[in-house]
Amino acid sequence: MPASCNDTDVLRCHCEYVPLRCLIVDDSDHFKEAARLLLEADGVAVVGSASTIAEALGRFGELRPDVVLVDIDLGEENGFDLARRLHEAGGGEPPPVILISTYDEQDFAELIATSPAVAFLSKPFLSGRAIGEILRGAEA
Amino acid sequence: MRARLLSLLLRASRPPLLWGILTGAACVAAETFMSLALAQVAPTSALDVVYLVGVLVVAYLWGLPLGILTALASGFVYDFFLVEPVNRITVFSSWTWMPLLIFLVVGVLVSVAAVLMRALLIEAEERRREADLDARTARLLLRAEHLGSALPIVARRLAQGLGLPFLAIELGPVGDDPRHTALPLTEDGAGIGTLVAPADLPTATMRRLRERVVPSLEAVLVAARDREAISTALAVSRDELARIAEEQAALRRVATLVARGVSPTEIFGAVAREMGLIVKADLTAIERYEPDRTVVLVSSWSASDRGSPPPVGTRRPLRDSGLSALVLRTGRPGRMTVEEGAAGELDGRAEDKEITSAVASPIVVEARLWGVMIAFFRAREPQPEGVEERMRDFTELVATAISNAQARDELAASRARVVAASDETRHRIERDLHDGAQQRLVSLGLQLRMAETAVPPDLPKLKEQLSHTAEGLTLVLDDLRELSRGIHPAILSKGGLGPALKMLARRSAVPVELNVRVDGRLPERVEVAVYYIVSECLTNVAKHARASLVCVEVEAAGDAARVWIRDNGKGGADPGRGSGLIGLIDRVQALGGAIEVTSPIGHGTALTAVIPVGDG
After folding, report:
1. A110–B446: do the CB atoms touch at under 8 Å?
2. Are B213 and B158 in contact (CB under 8 A)?
3. Which of A31, A107, A114, A121 is most worth mutating to test chain B (most B CB atoms within 10 A of its CB)?
4. A107 within domain boundaries
5. A104, A106, A115, A131, best to mutate vs chain B, most B CBs in 10 Å
6. pLDDT tens digit string along B2-25?
7. Is B342 helix (H, G, I), strand (E, B) or coil?
8. In whole angstroms, what is the distance from residue A4 CA to residue A34 CA?
9. Nearest-CB residue to A103 (from B453, B490, B507)
């Protein structure tokens, strides 16, 4: 897929100057590891990860990432709650939050629509390029 | 005139003697004139017969002596006026005395016959009167409601009929009194009463009383007494029958309540009242034994509105000397009087002091002594033997009601547990799938995609294969997601009913008009039930109803959640067919709710469900 390669290259070039810093919040270690490898390969700097809301808020305070990937399902906790908390924690400049899940977007359409998150991204379709498109769309 | 003549002829007493003499003389004179007249046409020797009429009349009315005298006078007058030579007494001078003697003998015989006839006639009249009197007496006595009250009337009538100054009939022996004569009335030698008559009655009257009045009075009195006994027995058995019917009706009313499965509280109330009325108690109470040697009042009833019973739920310690403790000890019905401590069972009741006795019956539920039913009485006299027996029928119904309610509660709890366990299992499986298999597959997919990008360009075949595998994996994930959603809707736990129902509406093949009025979250079991009801209905509508619109309304208000679903399809749905709806009905019933489906052909299908929210 040449287009994809080109995009990745663009992102990579961009990253060399201003690397996109990403925080992943998910309670599945398998997924966090797979996502980190994938995103790093795509030129996104995964600066940290967390499994719970408390941990995520702490990490966010320390790291001030450019984007936060939040799993909708955090065991007993809830990704929508975290998105709201992050939005509040961000003060005047809330970070873009992307909700991720293995569930279908349709399943949570209402909650996603009312959430301050910028977008929903299905886990199987996670990629540096998809994140880049979402962020560009959000800025536009 | 005829009646007066009859009464004159049948009168027992005779007219005055002077009247007799005058009548005799008049008769003789009249007969003489008649004979003289007849002598013109008939031989004089046959005319002495004419004089017999006078003899007959006088002898009948004034008796034999005056009759004979009239016969003698008639003989001499006849001799004087009609026997030749006329105007002379010839008896002593010729043989003509012979016919005169024959006339006299005939005259005497006529007199005797007249007197006899009169006696017989009067006797017959007396008998007739007595028979009338007997009939009247019998009618009076046999018709009387109470024998005692009819006796004075009968005695008065009897006295009138017999021409006595007074008579009295007493049911029993009468003390000696010189002014009275007491005639005992007996039946087979046993005294049944006494007829009291004046002491100075003539012997004939006394004999008449003794021989004719007393026997008939005895017979009528016995019959009347028997009739009264039969009436009383009938009345008693009628009352008994009415009582039994009343009792059966009361039992049937309570049994109907038990069969309808109404709440035990309602049955306790009904039993306390019905039993109170049946055993004619002044107060009734149903109490439950508690393990800590106390009793709790579960129902009470009062025949009057005096005072107020302690409220249901009142707890009091068990007194060792009390009736409840006695029943607890023996496990059998018991009774107590106020001296033995029955009133102690009435703690806090204003009417305490008036209660004199109490009867209690144990309530045994499945071989365990559950409680006691007590009836309190104000009446001084002891209660009849059967009270315990009659109370037992009611306690058995109470026991059945309690037992049914317990079984029902247990069944409901068990059903609710089954539903909850099944929900929990489904929820867990969904979570396990999501957290385990799905996450691993997603991770694998990501790794495959990475591997795909890492493949050197000179190996296009491998790249293609990897791409193919990644796509296959995505399809597997889709299938798994679909499966998970069917097992348990994740959005329900995350977002509650509103978002979950919106999701269902969005996915429905038939357009849905959704109206959800639910604030906050409901207990999970209720949310799950409502979700499945809506989900199942939407599936059914899409499959069968041929509708163009479904309206779904959900409201949580008060202590229940309500669901209304109706479509504009072809109707005619049968809730008994298809296991989906039956499963839902089971689920809702397990939560103590109800589902109603109406589906007239051609007018769409409507479903109403009510699910109690309870305390979560």
Report:
1. no
2. yes
3. A107
4. yes
5. A104
6. 777 777 777 777 888 899 899 999
7. helix
8. 19
9. B490
The answer to whether the CB atoms of A38 and B499 lie below 8 A apart is no
Confidence of residue A4 (pLDDT cuts 50, 70, 90): very low
Is residue B358 classed exposed, middle or buried when 0-12, 13-18 and 19+ CB atoms within 10 A define those classes? buried
> Does A102 map to a domain?
yes
Q: Does residue A50 sit in helix, strand or coil?
A: strand
Q: What is the pLDDT of residue A10?
A: 47
Residue B405: the pLDDT is 83
Residue A134 within any structural domain of the chain:
yes
State the residue range of the domain holding A98.
12-139
Is A29 contained in some domain?
A: yes
β-strand partners of B198: B180
Test A107 with B506 for CB contact under 8 angstroms: no
- H or E segment and range at residue B370: strand B368-377
Put simply, the chain B residues between 249 and 308 with a CB less than 8 A from any chain A CB are: none
- Note whether B274 and B291 are within 8 A (CB): no
**Per-residue confidence (pLDDT) for residue B576, from 0 to 100:** 67
The whole-angstrom separation of Cα A93 and Cα B203 is 145
Of A73, A115, A65, the C-alpha closest to A95 is A65
pTM for the model stands at: 0.56
CATH code at position A78: 3.40.50.2300
CA B559 vs CA B253, B514, B592: distances in Å: 31, 22, 12
Which residues of chain A have a Cβ shorter than 8 Å from any chain B Cβ?
A: 27-28, 30-31, 33-35, 37-38, 41, 72-73, 75, 78, 80, 102-104, 106-111, 123-124, 126-127
**B577 pLDDT tier (thresholds 50, 70, 90):** low
Residue range A28-86, pLDDT digits in tens: 888 999 999 999 888 899 999 999 999 999 998 888 899 999 999 888 888 999 999 88
**Count of domains forming chain A:** 1
- Residue pair B517/B554 in contact (Cβ under 8 Å)? The answer is yes
The H-assigned helical ranges of B261-291 are 264-278
Q: Which of A33, A34, A107 is facing B490, going by the closest CB pair?
A: A107
Contact B503 A38 (CB under 8 A): no
* Closest residue by Cα to residue B263 from B414, B406, B411: B406
pLDDT at res. B30: 92
Contact criterion met (CB below 8 Å) for B272 and B354: no
ipTM rounded to 2 decimals: 0.82
